[in-house]
Specification:
heterodimer, A: alpha/beta, Rossmann fold, 2 domains, 6-stranded mixed beta sheet, 9 helices, 10 strands, 37% helix, B: mainly alpha, MetI-like fold, 11 helices, 79% helix, 0% strand
Protein backbone atom coordinates (compact mmCIF):
# COMPACT_ATOMS: atom_id res chain seq x y z
CA UNK A 1 0.00 0.00 0.00
CA UNK A 2 2.90 2.35 0.52
CA UNK A 3 3.83 2.15 -3.17
CA UNK A 4 0.55 3.80 -4.13
CA UNK A 5 0.99 7.41 -5.24
CA UNK A 6 -2.42 8.11 -3.79
CA UNK A 7 -4.67 6.12 -1.53
CA UNK A 8 -8.13 7.29 -0.59
CA UNK A 9 -9.96 5.24 2.05
CA UNK A 10 -13.62 5.65 2.83
CA UNK A 11 -13.54 9.45 2.62
CA UNK A 12 -16.64 11.34 3.64
CA UNK A 13 -17.07 15.09 3.38
CA UNK A 14 -20.04 17.16 4.43
CA UNK A 15 -20.75 20.85 4.05
CA UNK A 16 -23.25 21.50 6.80
CA UNK A 17 -26.11 19.08 6.23
CA UNK A 18 -25.23 18.07 2.72
CA UNK A 19 -22.88 15.13 2.35
CA UNK A 20 -20.86 15.68 -0.82
CA UNK A 21 -18.54 12.67 -0.53
CA UNK A 22 -20.17 9.51 0.80
CA UNK A 23 -17.35 7.02 1.07
CA UNK A 24 -14.72 7.38 -1.64
CA UNK A 25 -12.16 4.59 -2.09
CA UNK A 26 -9.45 5.01 -4.68
CA UNK A 27 -5.93 3.78 -5.21
CA UNK A 28 -3.66 5.39 -7.78
CA UNK A 29 -0.26 4.06 -8.81
CA UNK A 30 2.71 6.12 -9.90
CA UNK A 31 2.38 7.36 -13.54
CA UNK A 32 -1.33 6.62 -13.72
CA UNK A 33 -3.66 9.19 -15.25
CA UNK A 34 -7.07 9.01 -13.64
CA UNK A 35 -9.98 10.91 -15.13
CA UNK A 36 -12.88 11.68 -12.83
CA UNK A 37 -16.13 12.13 -14.70
CA UNK A 38 -19.62 12.75 -13.45
CA UNK A 39 -22.27 15.42 -13.27
CA UNK A 40 -21.69 18.75 -11.57
CA UNK A 41 -22.10 18.25 -7.84
CA UNK A 42 -21.06 14.62 -7.95
CA UNK A 43 -18.03 15.43 -5.78
CA UNK A 44 -15.15 15.54 -8.27
CA UNK A 45 -13.83 18.95 -7.24
CA UNK A 46 -14.38 18.30 -3.55
CA UNK A 47 -12.38 15.10 -3.76
CA UNK A 48 -9.47 16.93 -5.39
CA UNK A 49 -9.63 19.71 -2.80
CA UNK A 50 -9.60 17.15 0.02
CA UNK A 51 -6.49 15.48 -1.39
CA UNK A 52 -4.31 18.55 -0.86
CA UNK A 53 -6.35 19.52 2.18
CA UNK A 54 -7.74 22.78 0.92
CA UNK A 55 -10.87 21.15 2.35
CA UNK A 56 -10.57 18.98 5.46
CA UNK A 57 -12.31 15.60 5.21
CA UNK A 58 -15.13 14.73 7.59
CA UNK A 59 -13.92 11.15 7.99
CA UNK A 60 -11.69 8.62 6.26
CA UNK A 61 -8.01 8.71 5.29
CA UNK A 62 -6.01 10.03 2.37
CA UNK A 63 -2.38 9.01 1.86
CA UNK A 64 -0.11 10.61 -0.72
CA UNK A 65 3.06 8.61 -1.27
CA UNK A 66 2.53 6.96 2.08
CA UNK A 67 2.11 10.24 3.99
CA UNK A 68 -1.23 10.65 5.64
CA UNK A 69 -2.64 13.97 4.47
CA UNK A 70 -5.65 13.68 6.73
CA UNK A 71 -3.65 13.18 9.94
CA UNK A 72 -4.38 15.85 12.53
CA UNK A 73 -0.67 16.62 12.93
CA UNK A 74 0.17 16.49 9.22
CA UNK A 75 2.49 19.24 7.96
CA UNK A 76 0.11 20.60 5.34
CA UNK A 77 2.64 22.98 3.80
CA UNK A 78 5.11 20.13 3.28
CA UNK A 79 2.39 17.91 1.83
CA UNK A 80 1.16 20.56 -0.57
CA UNK A 81 4.66 21.10 -1.90
CA UNK A 82 4.43 17.68 -3.55
CA UNK A 83 0.87 18.02 -4.82
CA UNK A 84 0.15 20.46 -7.60
CA UNK A 85 -3.39 21.66 -8.21
CA UNK A 86 -4.78 23.63 -11.13
CA UNK A 87 -8.16 25.29 -10.79
CA UNK A 88 -11.02 25.82 -13.17
CA UNK A 89 -10.73 29.61 -12.81
CA UNK A 90 -6.89 29.70 -13.11
CA UNK A 91 -6.49 31.78 -9.92
CA UNK A 92 -3.28 33.38 -11.10
CA UNK A 93 -1.96 36.18 -8.91
CA UNK A 94 -3.09 39.31 -10.79
CA UNK A 95 -0.48 41.60 -9.24
CA UNK A 96 2.46 39.49 -10.41
CA UNK A 97 3.97 38.96 -13.82
CA UNK A 98 3.81 35.56 -15.47
CA UNK A 99 7.33 34.63 -14.38
CA UNK A 100 6.71 35.79 -10.80
CA UNK A 101 3.51 33.74 -10.66
CA UNK A 102 5.50 30.69 -11.63
CA UNK A 103 8.48 31.32 -9.36
CA UNK A 104 6.66 32.44 -6.19
CA UNK A 105 6.40 28.89 -4.84
CA UNK A 106 9.99 27.89 -5.66
CA UNK A 107 11.32 31.12 -4.17
CA UNK A 108 9.29 31.29 -0.98
CA UNK A 109 8.57 27.63 -0.25
CA UNK A 110 11.55 25.80 -1.74
CA UNK A 111 13.85 28.76 -0.91
CA UNK A 112 15.41 28.84 -4.35
CA UNK A 113 17.41 31.93 -5.23
CA UNK A 114 15.78 34.37 -7.63
CA UNK A 115 18.06 33.31 -10.47
CA UNK A 116 17.58 29.59 -9.89
CA UNK A 117 13.81 30.04 -9.70
CA UNK A 118 13.80 32.20 -12.85
CA UNK A 119 15.83 29.57 -14.64
CA UNK A 120 13.31 26.92 -13.67
CA UNK A 121 10.40 29.16 -14.66
CA UNK A 122 11.93 30.13 -18.00
CA UNK A 123 12.58 26.49 -18.83
CA UNK A 124 8.88 25.79 -18.34
CA UNK A 125 7.82 28.88 -20.32
CA UNK A 126 10.09 27.93 -23.18
CA UNK A 127 8.89 24.38 -23.19
CA UNK A 128 5.24 25.40 -23.36
CA UNK A 129 5.78 28.28 -25.77
CA UNK A 130 5.07 31.28 -23.55
CA UNK A 131 8.59 32.58 -22.97
CA UNK A 132 7.90 35.90 -24.68
CA UNK A 133 5.01 36.60 -22.29
CA UNK A 134 7.11 36.21 -19.16
CA UNK A 135 6.89 39.89 -18.14
CA UNK A 136 3.16 40.29 -18.86
CA UNK A 137 0.49 40.47 -16.18
CA UNK A 138 -2.14 37.72 -16.26
CA UNK A 139 -4.96 40.01 -17.43
CA UNK A 140 -3.05 40.59 -20.67
CA UNK A 141 -3.18 36.89 -21.53
CA UNK A 142 -5.93 34.81 -23.13
CA UNK A 143 -7.75 32.29 -20.95
CA UNK A 144 -5.85 29.43 -22.55
CA UNK A 145 -2.53 31.14 -21.89
CA UNK A 146 -3.53 31.90 -18.32
CA UNK A 147 -4.42 28.30 -17.69
CA UNK A 148 -1.14 27.14 -19.19
CA UNK A 149 0.68 29.52 -16.85
CA UNK A 150 -1.33 28.11 -13.94
CA UNK A 151 -0.21 24.61 -14.91
CA UNK A 152 3.40 25.81 -15.09
CA UNK A 153 3.01 27.43 -11.68
CA UNK A 154 2.04 24.04 -10.29
CA UNK A 155 4.81 22.25 -12.22
CA UNK A 156 7.48 24.67 -10.97
CA UNK A 157 7.15 23.03 -7.56
CA UNK A 158 8.03 19.71 -9.25
CA UNK A 159 5.07 17.93 -7.70
CA UNK A 160 4.81 14.15 -7.71
CA UNK A 161 1.06 14.31 -8.11
CA UNK A 162 -0.93 16.79 -10.16
CA UNK A 163 -4.61 17.51 -9.58
CA UNK A 164 -6.53 19.19 -12.40
CA UNK A 165 -9.94 20.54 -11.51
CA UNK A 166 -11.99 21.03 -14.70
CA UNK A 167 -9.18 23.11 -16.09
CA UNK A 168 -10.85 23.72 -19.47
CA UNK A 169 -14.39 24.42 -18.25
CA UNK A 170 -13.90 28.20 -18.04
CA UNK A 171 -12.28 28.45 -21.47
CA UNK A 172 -13.70 29.48 -24.82
CA UNK A 173 -13.94 26.36 -27.01
CA UNK A 174 -11.13 27.42 -29.34
CA UNK A 175 -8.74 27.73 -26.40
CA UNK A 176 -9.35 24.27 -24.95
CA UNK A 177 -6.98 22.41 -27.27
CA UNK A 178 -3.81 24.27 -26.24
CA UNK A 179 -4.43 23.40 -22.58
CA UNK A 180 -5.26 19.78 -23.30
CA UNK A 181 -2.09 19.58 -25.37
CA UNK A 182 -0.03 20.54 -22.32
CA UNK A 183 -1.75 17.91 -20.18
CA UNK A 184 -1.18 15.29 -22.83
CA UNK A 185 2.52 16.08 -22.81
CA UNK A 186 2.62 15.68 -19.05
CA UNK A 187 0.85 12.33 -19.31
CA UNK A 188 3.35 11.19 -21.93
CA UNK A 189 6.25 11.90 -19.62
CA UNK A 190 4.67 9.92 -16.81
CA UNK A 191 3.20 12.58 -14.49
CA UNK A 192 0.75 11.04 -12.05
CA UNK A 193 -2.48 12.95 -12.53
CA UNK A 194 -5.99 13.08 -11.23
CA UNK A 195 -8.14 14.96 -13.70
CA UNK A 196 -11.71 16.07 -13.09
CA UNK A 197 -13.08 16.79 -16.55
CA UNK A 198 -16.10 17.19 -18.79
CA UNK A 199 -14.00 16.58 -21.91
CA UNK A 200 -15.01 12.98 -22.58
CA UNK A 201 -13.05 12.61 -25.81
CA UNK A 202 -9.95 13.78 -24.00
CA UNK A 203 -10.61 11.49 -21.04
CA UNK A 204 -11.04 8.53 -23.30
CA UNK A 205 -7.82 9.38 -25.03
CA UNK A 206 -5.55 10.14 -22.13
CA UNK A 207 -6.81 8.20 -19.10
CA UNK A 208 -5.31 5.00 -17.89
CA UNK A 209 -8.45 4.67 -15.83
CA UNK A 210 -11.76 6.48 -15.70
CA UNK A 211 -13.81 6.86 -12.52
CA UNK A 212 -17.46 7.76 -12.73
CA UNK A 213 -18.60 9.69 -9.67
CA UNK A 214 -22.24 9.79 -8.79
CA UNK A 215 -23.71 11.38 -5.67
CA UNK A 216 -20.44 11.29 -3.77
CA UNK A 217 -19.26 7.76 -4.52
CA UNK A 218 -17.18 6.21 -7.28
CA UNK A 219 -19.96 4.21 -8.87
CA UNK A 220 -17.87 2.62 -11.55
CA UNK A 221 -14.24 2.62 -12.64
CA UNK A 222 -12.25 0.92 -15.35
CA UNK A 223 -10.26 1.39 -18.55
CA UNK A 224 -11.66 4.23 -20.68
CA UNK A 225 -12.79 1.94 -23.50
CA UNK A 226 -14.87 -0.14 -21.13
CA UNK A 227 -16.41 2.87 -19.36
CA UNK A 228 -17.29 4.73 -22.53
CA UNK A 229 -18.28 1.76 -24.73
CA UNK A 230 -19.67 -0.72 -22.27
CA UNK A 231 -20.55 0.88 -18.94
CA UNK A 232 -21.83 -1.64 -16.41
CA UNK A 233 -23.91 0.77 -14.38
CA UNK A 234 -27.20 2.19 -15.58
CA UNK A 235 -26.33 5.62 -14.05
CA UNK A 236 -23.08 5.75 -16.02
CA UNK A 237 -24.95 4.93 -19.20
CA UNK A 238 -27.50 7.67 -18.54
CA UNK A 239 -24.78 10.19 -17.80
CA UNK A 240 -22.90 9.38 -21.00
CA UNK A 241 -26.10 9.56 -23.02
CA UNK A 242 -26.76 13.04 -21.69
CA UNK A 243 -23.22 14.04 -22.61
CA UNK A 244 -23.65 12.69 -26.13
CA UNK A 245 -27.01 14.42 -26.45
CA UNK A 246 -25.34 17.68 -25.45
CA UNK A 247 -22.81 17.17 -28.23
CA UNK A 248 -19.87 16.98 -25.87
CA UNK A 249 -18.62 13.58 -27.08
CA UNK B 1 -12.77 51.13 -24.52
CA UNK B 2 -10.00 53.61 -25.23
CA UNK B 3 -11.07 56.71 -27.08
CA UNK B 4 -9.80 56.76 -30.61
CA UNK B 5 -8.82 60.08 -32.15
CA UNK B 6 -11.22 61.42 -34.78
CA UNK B 7 -14.16 59.58 -33.28
CA UNK B 8 -17.05 60.97 -31.40
CA UNK B 9 -16.34 60.15 -27.76
CA UNK B 10 -18.68 57.77 -26.03
CA UNK B 11 -20.64 60.11 -23.73
CA UNK B 12 -20.67 57.55 -20.92
CA UNK B 13 -16.88 57.35 -20.89
CA UNK B 14 -16.29 61.04 -21.49
CA UNK B 15 -18.64 61.88 -18.64
CA UNK B 16 -16.54 59.82 -16.28
CA UNK B 17 -13.21 61.12 -17.44
CA UNK B 18 -14.16 64.78 -17.09
CA UNK B 19 -16.35 65.05 -14.06
CA UNK B 20 -15.96 68.77 -13.54
CA UNK B 21 -17.57 69.81 -16.80
CA UNK B 22 -19.86 66.83 -17.16
CA UNK B 23 -18.75 65.95 -20.67
CA UNK B 24 -15.90 66.47 -23.07
CA UNK B 25 -17.89 68.03 -25.90
CA UNK B 26 -17.31 71.77 -26.40
CA UNK B 27 -20.96 72.73 -26.30
CA UNK B 28 -21.36 71.06 -22.93
CA UNK B 29 -18.35 72.92 -21.55
CA UNK B 30 -20.00 76.17 -22.56
CA UNK B 31 -23.26 75.18 -20.87
CA UNK B 32 -21.44 74.12 -17.71
CA UNK B 33 -19.53 77.40 -17.67
CA UNK B 34 -22.63 79.54 -18.19
CA UNK B 35 -24.60 77.71 -15.51
CA UNK B 36 -21.68 78.02 -13.08
CA UNK B 37 -21.43 81.77 -13.68
CA UNK B 38 -25.18 82.23 -13.15
CA UNK B 39 -25.24 80.21 -9.92
CA UNK B 40 -22.24 81.96 -8.43
CA UNK B 41 -23.40 85.43 -9.47
CA UNK B 42 -26.70 84.84 -7.70
CA UNK B 43 -24.92 83.54 -4.60
CA UNK B 44 -22.44 86.41 -4.45
CA UNK B 45 -25.18 89.00 -5.00
CA UNK B 46 -27.28 87.45 -2.23
CA UNK B 47 -24.39 87.60 0.23
CA UNK B 48 -23.10 91.04 -0.72
CA UNK B 49 -26.59 92.55 -0.51
CA UNK B 50 -27.36 91.02 2.88
CA UNK B 51 -27.89 93.58 5.68
CA UNK B 52 -24.86 92.42 7.74
CA UNK B 53 -22.41 92.21 4.84
CA UNK B 54 -20.41 95.40 5.54
CA UNK B 55 -19.58 94.25 9.10
CA UNK B 56 -18.80 90.68 7.98
CA UNK B 57 -16.63 91.99 5.22
CA UNK B 58 -14.68 94.18 7.60
CA UNK B 59 -14.08 91.44 10.18
CA UNK B 60 -13.58 88.36 7.92
CA UNK B 61 -12.37 89.68 4.58
CA UNK B 62 -9.99 92.42 5.56
CA UNK B 63 -7.27 92.52 2.92
CA UNK B 64 -4.78 94.42 5.09
CA UNK B 65 -5.21 91.93 7.91
CA UNK B 66 -4.74 89.10 5.42
CA UNK B 67 -1.52 90.56 4.07
CA UNK B 68 -0.20 91.20 7.55
CA UNK B 69 -0.82 87.76 9.01
CA UNK B 70 -0.66 85.32 6.12
CA UNK B 71 3.16 84.89 6.18
CA UNK B 72 3.11 84.18 9.92
CA UNK B 73 0.32 81.66 9.68
CA UNK B 74 1.93 80.03 6.66
CA UNK B 75 5.22 79.68 8.52
CA UNK B 76 3.46 77.86 11.34
CA UNK B 77 1.55 75.72 8.86
CA UNK B 78 4.85 73.96 8.37
CA UNK B 79 4.26 72.37 11.82
CA UNK B 80 1.00 70.89 10.53
CA UNK B 81 2.71 69.57 7.42
CA UNK B 82 5.48 67.91 9.40
CA UNK B 83 3.04 66.47 11.90
CA UNK B 84 0.88 65.15 9.08
CA UNK B 85 3.74 63.54 7.19
CA UNK B 86 5.17 61.80 10.26
CA UNK B 87 1.77 60.60 11.49
CA UNK B 88 0.87 59.35 8.02
CA UNK B 89 4.00 57.25 7.71
CA UNK B 90 3.47 55.66 11.14
CA UNK B 91 -0.26 55.07 10.52
CA UNK B 92 0.34 53.29 7.20
CA UNK B 93 2.48 50.67 8.91
CA UNK B 94 0.76 50.46 12.29
CA UNK B 95 -2.76 50.18 10.86
CA UNK B 96 -1.69 47.43 8.48
CA UNK B 97 -0.35 45.53 11.48
CA UNK B 98 -3.71 45.85 13.25
CA UNK B 99 -5.60 44.73 10.15
CA UNK B 100 -3.36 41.71 9.68
CA UNK B 101 -3.68 40.72 13.35
CA UNK B 102 -7.43 40.88 12.98
CA UNK B 103 -7.34 38.61 9.93
CA UNK B 104 -5.38 35.86 11.70
CA UNK B 105 -7.28 32.65 12.24
CA UNK B 106 -7.34 29.81 14.71
CA UNK B 107 -8.69 29.62 18.25
CA UNK B 108 -5.24 30.07 19.83
CA UNK B 109 -4.96 33.54 18.33
CA UNK B 110 -8.35 34.68 19.62
CA UNK B 111 -6.82 37.05 22.25
CA UNK B 112 -4.80 38.81 19.55
CA UNK B 113 -7.87 39.22 17.36
CA UNK B 114 -9.79 40.47 20.36
CA UNK B 115 -7.15 43.11 21.15
CA UNK B 116 -7.29 44.33 17.56
CA UNK B 117 -11.09 44.50 17.65
CA UNK B 118 -11.20 46.32 21.00
CA UNK B 119 -8.58 48.76 19.75
CA UNK B 120 -10.50 49.72 16.62
CA UNK B 121 -13.82 49.93 18.46
CA UNK B 122 -12.31 52.11 21.17
CA UNK B 123 -10.47 54.62 19.03
CA UNK B 124 -13.19 54.92 16.43
CA UNK B 125 -15.72 55.47 19.20
CA UNK B 126 -14.00 58.18 21.26
CA UNK B 127 -14.05 61.69 19.73
CA UNK B 128 -10.62 62.63 18.40
CA UNK B 129 -10.50 65.77 20.51
CA UNK B 130 -10.95 63.75 23.70
CA UNK B 131 -8.10 61.42 22.80
CA UNK B 132 -5.93 64.45 22.08
CA UNK B 133 -6.78 65.95 25.48
CA UNK B 134 -6.43 62.71 27.42
CA UNK B 135 -3.03 61.83 25.99
CA UNK B 136 -1.71 65.37 25.66
CA UNK B 137 -2.50 66.36 29.22
CA UNK B 138 -2.58 62.96 30.88
CA UNK B 139 0.64 61.26 29.87
CA UNK B 140 3.02 64.19 30.53
CA UNK B 141 1.40 64.48 33.97
CA UNK B 142 2.62 60.97 34.78
CA UNK B 143 6.19 62.34 34.61
CA UNK B 144 7.53 59.06 33.31
CA UNK B 145 11.27 59.10 32.82
CA UNK B 146 12.55 58.43 29.33
CA UNK B 147 9.20 59.29 27.77
CA UNK B 148 8.91 62.45 25.68
CA UNK B 149 6.76 65.07 27.37
CA UNK B 150 6.08 67.39 24.44
CA UNK B 151 2.47 68.29 23.70
CA UNK B 152 3.20 68.03 20.01
CA UNK B 153 4.51 64.51 20.49
CA UNK B 154 1.47 63.31 22.42
CA UNK B 155 -0.89 65.14 20.12
CA UNK B 156 0.71 63.27 17.25
CA UNK B 157 0.39 59.98 19.12
CA UNK B 158 -3.31 60.69 19.68
CA UNK B 159 -3.86 61.33 15.97
CA UNK B 160 -1.94 58.16 15.11
CA UNK B 161 -4.05 56.07 17.49
CA UNK B 162 -7.36 57.47 16.23
CA UNK B 163 -6.57 57.40 12.53
CA UNK B 164 -4.93 53.98 12.68
CA UNK B 165 -8.26 52.58 13.87
CA UNK B 166 -9.97 53.95 10.75
CA UNK B 167 -7.19 53.03 8.39
CA UNK B 168 -7.00 49.49 9.85
CA UNK B 169 -10.66 49.03 8.93
CA UNK B 170 -9.95 50.26 5.41
CA UNK B 171 -7.10 47.76 5.12
CA UNK B 172 -9.30 45.01 6.50
CA UNK B 173 -11.98 45.72 3.92
CA UNK B 174 -9.27 45.42 1.28
CA UNK B 175 -7.98 42.14 2.69
CA UNK B 176 -11.48 40.69 2.78
CA UNK B 177 -12.18 41.83 -0.79
CA UNK B 178 -9.47 39.54 -2.15
CA UNK B 179 -11.23 36.41 -3.39
CA UNK B 180 -10.70 33.25 -1.28
CA UNK B 181 -9.54 31.43 -4.42
CA UNK B 182 -6.38 33.53 -4.26
CA UNK B 183 -5.63 32.15 -0.84
CA UNK B 184 -6.43 28.63 -2.02
CA UNK B 185 -4.00 29.05 -4.93
CA UNK B 186 -1.23 30.33 -2.69
CA UNK B 187 -1.73 27.75 0.05
CA UNK B 188 -1.84 24.92 -2.47
CA UNK B 189 1.70 25.89 -3.54
CA UNK B 190 2.76 25.22 0.04
CA UNK B 191 2.91 28.85 1.20
CA UNK B 192 2.10 29.30 4.88
CA UNK B 193 -0.71 31.61 5.97
CA UNK B 194 1.66 34.49 6.84
CA UNK B 195 3.47 34.07 3.52
CA UNK B 196 0.14 34.05 1.71
CA UNK B 197 -0.83 37.30 3.42
CA UNK B 198 2.48 38.93 2.68
CA UNK B 199 2.99 37.97 -0.95
CA UNK B 200 -0.54 37.44 -2.27
CA UNK B 201 -3.33 38.96 -0.18
CA UNK B 202 -1.92 42.21 1.25
CA UNK B 203 -0.33 43.48 -2.00
CA UNK B 204 -3.69 43.12 -3.76
CA UNK B 205 -5.61 44.54 -0.80
CA UNK B 206 -3.43 47.65 -0.53
CA UNK B 207 -3.81 48.47 -4.22
CA UNK B 208 -7.55 48.32 -3.90
CA UNK B 209 -7.84 50.59 -0.87
CA UNK B 210 -5.52 53.41 -1.92
CA UNK B 211 -8.41 55.81 -2.74
CA UNK B 212 -10.25 55.37 0.61
CA UNK B 213 -6.88 55.48 2.35
CA UNK B 214 -6.10 58.88 0.83
CA UNK B 215 -9.57 60.00 1.86
CA UNK B 216 -8.71 59.27 5.49
CA UNK B 217 -5.47 61.17 5.09
CA UNK B 218 -7.34 64.24 3.91
CA UNK B 219 -9.17 64.06 7.24
CA UNK B 220 -5.91 63.64 9.10
CA UNK B 221 -4.43 66.70 7.41
CA UNK B 222 -7.25 68.84 8.77
CA UNK B 223 -7.23 67.26 12.21
CA UNK B 224 -3.61 68.22 12.80
CA UNK B 225 -5.20 71.51 13.90
CA UNK B 226 -6.61 69.74 16.98
CA UNK B 227 -3.12 69.47 18.41
CA UNK B 228 -3.20 73.27 18.83
CA UNK B 229 -5.59 72.77 21.74
CA UNK B 230 -2.68 71.32 23.74
CA UNK B 231 -0.65 74.49 23.29
CA UNK B 232 1.82 74.06 20.42
CA UNK B 233 1.68 76.88 17.93
CA UNK B 234 0.77 75.71 14.47
CA UNK B 235 -1.28 77.34 11.73
CA UNK B 236 -4.63 77.39 13.54
CA UNK B 237 -3.13 78.43 16.85
CA UNK B 238 -1.14 81.19 15.18
CA UNK B 239 -4.26 82.49 13.43
CA UNK B 240 -6.08 82.37 16.76
CA UNK B 241 -3.35 84.49 18.34
CA UNK B 242 -3.63 86.94 15.46
CA UNK B 243 -7.41 87.13 15.82
CA UNK B 244 -7.09 87.96 19.52
CA UNK B 245 -4.44 90.57 18.83
CA UNK B 246 -6.39 92.55 16.22
CA UNK B 247 -9.99 91.61 17.03
CA UNK B 248 -10.39 90.61 13.40
CA UNK B 249 -11.29 87.16 12.07
CA UNK B 250 -9.40 87.38 8.78
CA UNK B 251 -6.40 85.36 10.04
CA UNK B 252 -8.70 82.35 10.41
CA UNK B 253 -9.26 82.67 6.70
CA UNK B 254 -5.50 82.51 6.15
CA UNK B 255 -5.37 79.19 8.02
CA UNK B 256 -8.44 77.87 6.16
CA UNK B 257 -6.88 78.77 2.84
CA UNK B 258 -3.66 76.94 3.73
CA UNK B 259 -5.53 73.78 4.74
CA UNK B 260 -7.48 73.90 1.49
CA UNK B 261 -4.30 74.37 -0.52
CA UNK B 262 -2.88 71.26 1.15
CA UNK B 263 -5.96 69.00 0.92
CA UNK B 264 -7.27 69.84 -2.55
CA UNK B 265 -4.32 68.35 -4.45
CA UNK B 266 -4.68 65.16 -2.41
CA UNK B 267 -8.43 65.08 -3.12
CA UNK B 268 -7.90 65.54 -6.87
CA UNK B 269 -5.16 62.90 -6.82
CA UNK B 270 -7.61 60.49 -5.16
CA UNK B 271 -10.23 61.23 -7.84
CA UNK B 272 -7.64 60.65 -10.51
CA UNK B 273 -6.69 57.27 -9.01
CA UNK B 274 -10.33 56.18 -8.83
CA UNK B 275 -10.94 57.24 -12.43
CA UNK B 276 -7.82 55.41 -13.57
CA UNK B 277 -8.85 52.22 -11.78
CA UNK B 278 -12.28 52.37 -13.36
CA UNK B 279 -10.78 52.84 -16.79
CA UNK B 280 -8.55 49.83 -16.21
CA UNK B 281 -11.48 47.74 -15.14
CA UNK B 282 -13.40 48.71 -18.26
CA UNK B 283 -10.38 47.90 -20.38
CA UNK B 284 -10.03 44.56 -18.62
CA UNK B 285 -13.62 43.65 -19.42
CA UNK B 286 -13.35 44.57 -23.08
Amino acid sequence: MSDAALLVEDVHKSFGDSEVLRGIDLSVSEHEVICLIGASGSGKSTLLRCINRIEPVSSGRILVHGVEVTAADADVNAIRRNIGIVFQSFNLFPHMTVIDNITLGPRKVLRLSRSDADERGMALLQRFGLAERRAEYPDRLSGGQQQRVAIMRALAMQPRLLLLDEVTSALDPELVAEVLHVIRELADEGMTMLIATHEMGFARDIASRVCFLDAGVILEQGPPDQIFSDPREERTRQFLQRIIAAGRM
Amino acid sequence: MALRPGRRPDPAVAGRSSRIFGSGAGRNVAIALASTIVVFTVLVLAIVNSPGWPEVKASFFNWDEFKEWFPDVARHFWVNVKLFLICEAVILVFALGIAVLRSLRGPVLFPIRMIAIVYTDLFRGVPTILVVFLLGFGVPALQLSGVPNGELFWGGVALILVYSAYVAEVYRAGIESVHPSQEAAARSLGLSHPQTLRYVIVPQAVRRVIPPLLNDFIGLQKDTALVALLGPVEAFRQSDIAVSADFNFTPYLCAALLFILATVPLARFTDWLVARDRKRQLAGQA
